[in-house]
Amino acid sequence: MIRPDLLLHPTPKGLYCPPGDFYIDPVRGAVDRAVVTHGHADHARAGHGAVLATPETLAIMEARYGEEFTTSRQPVEYGETVEINGVTVWMSPAGHVLGSAQVVVEWKGLRMVCTGDYKRRRDPTCRQFEPVPGTHVFISEATFGLPVFRHPDTDGEIRKLLDSVAMFPERTHLVGVYALGKAQRVIKLLREAGYNETLYIHGALEKLCKLYEDHGVALGPLETATLDTKERGAQERFRGKIVLGPPSSFHDKWGRRFPDPLPCFASGWMSVRQRAKQSGVELPLIISDHADWDELTDTVREVDPEELWITHGREDALVRWAELEGRKARPLRLVGYEDESID
């Protein structure tokens, strides 16, 4: 079998495929041809000559960057194969956000899988992760690649939020969520938990919430959390309500106008108590869109590749774990990813 680095290898711009002449999630500068795993900004940049991705990811990129984010776009459904200069490329669900995909690259009998970002837990807003059989080289993210990161039950974290709303009906619960993926997932989980009241959202979430609904993800009654300061007592209608917005929005003038705000933050990083305390979070919600330590290691065992390549996060601990398991592993040391900004 050919050497894996002849098919894919790390470069300053990202993972490059020489025979196919394309990059996977290029992060530094525009390239002629990009294959994009999902729509988060640290994986999907504008300005590439051609972009191949799932239809949902292309729609997300258009919503974020405008219609002319690329010269040419090629939508690929999960499981659909395409040939790029003799290299076969197809997508398998990654379970991270709407449209997220693992990129499967095949050439001369070698199969390599780049996960992008992924999680193994059920997410009602996107397709669940599907392991790719027969993988020779598995390129895994490692955002939470330390044994200390073992995320609690997601439904339990949603219950914590609802219990707090019931316990403090005089307060406005401000829930920090990232605009793509986390916001829609938290909203949908609240609906599944029986919360059918109107949810209020920051204007920055509107476009992507609508996009999710356009793709069949029903989010229930949503209203923009606007505060008319000229209307007497306008803030009072938010007492006992849940308001979702980007984490940064709750520290500015907009967030401080809500009555008796109770700051929350839905993030895998909320398992680090000091981080929650420094952020002024009263109710940390440990809800992550990335695999935790057990999910990372269980996935590697399930896929059982001949080689494990690790990127985007805590590489060294996962390399050491693999070595102790008798697995061949290497860190890629790719630069440019924002390993703590999207979780």
Task: Briefly characterize the structure.
The protein is globular, with a radius of gyration of 21 Å.
Describe this entry's structure for a reader:
By secondary structure, the protein is of the alpha/beta class. The protein is 23% helix and 24% strand. It has a seven-stranded mixed beta sheet with strand order 7-8-9-10-11-18-19, with helices on one face. Strands 1-2-3-4-5-6 form a six-stranded mixed beta sheet. Strand 13, helix 4 (203-214) and strand 14 (222-224) form a beta-alpha-beta unit. The chain is globular and about 70 Å long. The protein starts with 8 loop residues before the first strand and ends in a 12-residue tail after the last strand. One of its GO terms (molecular function) is RNA endonuclease activity. Residues 31-161 form the Metallo-beta-lactamase domain. It holds the Pfam family Lactamase_B.
